[in-house]
Amino acid sequence: MIRFVLIISILTCGAASLFAQSANWPEDSLAIYDERIHVALEKKDYTQVQSLFQVIYREAFKSLDQAFYDYFIKGTKESKYKDLPDILGLIYNFIGNFEYSKSNMKAAKSAFMLALENYQIAGNKKSIAGMGMNLGVLMQLDTEYDSAIL
Q: Which pTM was predicted?
């Protein structure tokens, strides 16, 4: 009987914690992932930093919760990223995608331009090409056809 109660308790608590994380991810998990990013930065494991930001971004795009947007904006102002143009480019790319999803094309274009600048500093050709595509789409939507042609 005690085993049964213990198993039911574990299953109930486990299910509740999974629900809490998916239902309110910014409150439950954003600080945890931010701490993991901090640890990875201390270890200079920039691949891990990018992976952690990708996890946050995937969760952010599920809800478009303002807390995620605020987190990314805050990241652009933090000194810990100022010498990491690949990371800053990623953050600005996320901001651009958020703005695009809110149909704020001017802000999206501005964020994508900042992402492009950072990717150029980093020499990240793949991401430079991605920003070229994002900017081309925005320019085409704004009927800036000559500017959209590279």
A: 0.78
